Amino acid sequence: MSSGDVGEQDGIPGEPGGHRGPSDRRVCADSGTTGNTRDAGRTDSGDDGPESGSGEVRPPGRPRRAVVAALMLTMGLVALDGAIVSTAVPQIVGDVGGFSVFSWIFSGYMLASTVTLPVYGKLSDTLGRKPVLLLGISVFLLGSLLCAAAWNMAALVAFRILQGLGGGALQGTVQTLAADLYPLRERPRIQARMSVVWAGSALAGPALGGLIASYADWRWIFLINLPLALAALWIIGRHLVEPVRAPGRRGRIDWAGALGIFACGGLLLFALVQGGVAWPWLSAPSVTLLGATAALGLLVVRVERRAAEPILPGWVWRRRPIAAVNLAMGALGLLMVAPMVFMPMYAQTVLRLSAVEAGLITSAMTLTWPISAMFVQHVYRRVGFRDSAVIGVGIAAVILCAFTLLPYPAAPWQPALIMLLLGAALGLFQLPLIMAVQSTVVWQERGTTTASVLFCRQVGMSVGAALMGAVANATLAGRLADAPAAGLPRHVNDVAGALDRPAQLAPGAAEYLRRAVDAAVDHVFVCATVAAVAAVLVLLLLAPRRFPVLPED
Predict the structure, then answer these.
(1) CA-to-CA distance for 522 and 528, rounded, in angstroms?
(2) pLDDT score of 8
(3) Which residue of 157, 258, 271, 444 sits 20 to 30 Å from the alpha carbon of 1, by its own alpha carbon?
(4) Cβ-Cβ contacts under 8 Å for 461 (sequence gap 6 or more)
(5) pLDDT at 54
(6) Residues of the chain predicted below pLDDT 50
(7) Rounded distance between C-alpha atoms, residue 262 and residue 510, angstroms
(8) What is the pLDDT of residue 532?
(9) Can you tell me whether residue 523 is helix, strand or coil?
(10) How far apart are CA 23 and CA 444, in angstroms?
(11) Alpha carbons 11 and 233: distance in angstroms, whole number
């Protein structure tokens, strides 16, 4: 049996009963080898010699391990930056001011990194992964330097947007390169390592940010990116060599489509971020922004249909496997808002825990997610990619619903257990879908496909934040309107401040507010449960039971 046989279980290599299809051109992680390679870098260790047992020439394993280390370093760079900045906000605001707009430190970065994902995905398919990744690291590095030199909040927000422009290139390209470097059989290992890096950065970031904010200047939270980014630049520039492709196959870059997608996505995310916060949802600004988004979206569709090489091609939605995964990942982004955004509020407001204790409960999910991802291959090798994801998100739906059944007040270990189980379930859900959809396309389409998946997840999170925020606000407003006692805040925005000073409230008022917040969070988790059920239905109705995985030789 040859190594190129494709198996019955979603085309997993190495199993009998497969078919053969178009070859997939792989990236070499080698300092001196270019061109098409068979099973490039198939082994991660113990195969540093130039030839395999079958007589075929393989690139040394050491350069590939160096590239993988650089990818993990790059992934950690993005994850650590997001986690470390949040803890230094009080020091930043105290130094440069701008309390009313400080949330745009995060929103600006998210907006820029999200709307550029499709653009970078197409560019990586057209120009190659290496130049896009080097560009992304360089822009991220420049943004970090400028953030450290920011003189006021407006400048810091602008430089965070620049940093996000680089971050968008890092997120999608790292995931795409992981699929390029590793065949499907070995891909769970690299994906599990990426998950471990992300989880470790998410856990270490708040502590590191707190130490820097307490004992050094807040600007060091951005300067700490410099050695990491420079090391990644050097390793990738030295060791990553891509196949040499004929110039005629590169195609033209659709700059009009790129600009249109950037503008349309930016308007949509801006409307979702600001709606219900800076102005009411039914106000003129919201209606204007959403209307402009719809009009610009129609124009982008028209432009993309006429483009020879569209940034977001129509086949992304015409192919059932990719469309199903995109919709399921959008549902994942939506349901993630409940545990990541509302669980900390629940822990601090309802359970009256400290910020550190609330953070520990929330981070419990990041402990089991990578562990689950590490062993998920044993599940999908038996039941397939789709059914593995269905099992994971189905269990997640049950866990999310179980949160609404917690007693009032819950013991701290109960929501912590919910988060632990939820992380394990979502590890079964996300990784098989990403691996499956990457394996259904050839090299020239993998960047666009991966970017579309990540883009849908990010948009799902933005829509989820707006939707679930509206549900929580509506619940709180209803409870305040029906309050039996006087002395309660009149507006939802005043609830958090009132609970920070419970002694100033009338007897029983603080308890009433905590129960109101508990009810609001319960309703949010109901919405998350509905999103998980929607993901199950999408996968069962749209996704093929066996993904059409292409052979990799």
Answers:
(1) 10
(2) 39
(3) 444
(4) 333, 334, 336, 337
(5) 36
(6) 1-9, 12-61, 247-248, 553
(7) 45
(8) 96
(9) helix
(10) 12
(11) 35
